[in-house]
């Protein structure tokens, strides 16, 4: 998997945590992972208690992006490497990324 190897090199080179995205047919999930420690710093998804309505929309993905950016700020994370997880940077993945950037995350 060339994409995975490239990302591994990138986030290690930058020394930044990784913002990973996973989407399913019904929901979208995001988490910020500190690779050196091997732990998840913060996570958000359309399954969170504050989420209402369908989880497979760009609006729901944008809310998850805002939520992950807020949680990252509280955890002291300002810069990340974006890992789209093999999904195309389009639609829900793009909406999440744009909202996270608007929320203050740098990538």
Explain what you see.
The longest helix is centred in the middle third of the chain and has 18 residues, at about 60-75. The chain has about 110 residues and is an alpha+beta fold. Residues about 1-5 have low confidence and may be disordered. It has a four-stranded mixed β-sheet with strand order 3-2-1-4. About 40% of the residues lie in helices and about 20% in strands. The chain has three helices and four strands, in the order αβββαβα. α2 (about 60-75) runs parallel beside α3. β1 and β2 (about 30-35) form a beta hairpin.
Percentage of β-strand residues: 15-25%
Q: Could you say which structural class the secondary elements and strand pairing correspond to?
A: alpha+beta
Q: End-to-end distance, in Å?
A: 22 Å
Question: Main sheet, how many strands, which sense, barrel?
Answer: 4 strands, mixed
Poorly predicted regions: 1-6
> For the largest beta sheet, what order do the strands appear in spatially?
3-2-1-4
**Helix and strand run:** HEEEHEH
C-alpha Rg (nearest Å)? 13 Å
- If helices are DSSP runs of H or I spanning 4 or more residues, what is the number of helices? 3
Give the rounded overall mean pLDDT. 88
Helix percentage range: 25-40%
Instruction: Tell me, briefly, the overall form.
Output: globular
How many E strands?
4
